Amino acid sequence: MAPPSRKVLLLCGDYVEDYEAAVPLYALPALGVAVDVVAPGKLPGSHCLTAVHEFLGHDLYTELPGHARLPVTASLADPSRYDALLVPGGRCVEPLSCDPTAVALVAAFVKTRKPVVLTCHSQLLLAAAGAMAGVTCTAFFSLRPVVEMAGGKWVDPNPFEKCVVDGHVLTAIGWPAHAQIIGKLLARLGARVDGGAGKAVLILCGDYVDDYEANVPFRLLSALGCRVDCASPTKRKGDHCVTAIYDAPPSPAAAVTEERRGHNFGVTVDWADVVFAADEYDCVVVPGGRAPELLVTHASAVALVKEVAEKGKVVGSVDQGHLLLAAAGVVKGKRCASGVPMKVVARVAGAEVVEDGGAVVDGKLVTAASWLDLPEFLAHIIEQLGITVSF
């Protein structure tokens, strides 16, 4: 990965919305943008608890426990060291809006007119900083009265993927807008993106696909102009796959972590359309989690991965995604980054297992051992696709 060209600050706290923190944290470094995470009252090396906010058939979203180990990497620092501020939503916003240091931090970025990204409920901090007046913005629907009472101009978040930009302030309803958020933030950071338009990427998934390993590539590659489809042999377009959350192990010796339900991940294309048009894709990404155990039982999924690889396209896999690649014969004779879950599988399939972390490239094959390696994994995928991001 190239040395960082820009540096942004992520303001968090306990029960920050999981995706809204994780996507910038793991996607932006793949593009040469360093990310520091700060949380009032927490020291570098500590962690924030995250929360999953998802609609599960009730009138309001349900809150589920997310990852428990979102890393805090810095102390509250001089805003002049950073090029932008990102404030995810979640219940952390309420105490942050009453914390003088957090409010002062937001006010400082607003004053210098550096990009400020606010999602879901974090627009409350703009009101707390006395900086909402005259700003056109969107948020989660419950924030409309707050925006209007504070003098802002409300815009409905329709569609949910929309990011509203008013000068240096970027707002959105939440994580569904991450592709637009990243794309528009990059533009305001002076980035030039080349090579993404016209590229097509397929993400193969199923129920209990890893939460981060599916969503972070989906949002980032979409932000770079790629057409990104998600497909599952058991789902139709418009269906959802339930995702699974696995925390980072607290120690190298702890190879197994608790599984929790994550967000819903939308299927964007019918399986039959994917099978008959596999040649249209420049890259296939297979996230981990338990979904590969389902995918490997579908001959059409195995055949699709084999076809894409044989045609010299890019194939990427994280963690248990290696199981599908092994069944397709894709890892035979290749260097393959594998953690404990897939170490034996990769060796039986004829791979040279690399265990030192990070992501590994061998020809058009890109592998990573876990979601912790997503920044490097995605940087390699982007390079293999011929996409460049320059500042």
TrEMBL record:
InterPro entries named among the record's database cross-references: C56_PfpI-like, Class_I_gatase-like, DJ-1/PfpI
Database matches in Gene3D superfamilies: 3.40.50.880
Domain DJ-1/PfpI positions: 6-186, 199-384
Coiled-coil stretches noted in the UniProt entry, renumbered to this chain: none
UniProt similarity note: Belongs to the peptidase C56 family.
Name this protein carries in UniProt: DJ-1/PfpI domain-containing protein
Species classification: Eukaryota, Viridiplantae, Streptophyta, Embryophyta, Tracheophyta
Gene: ga22041
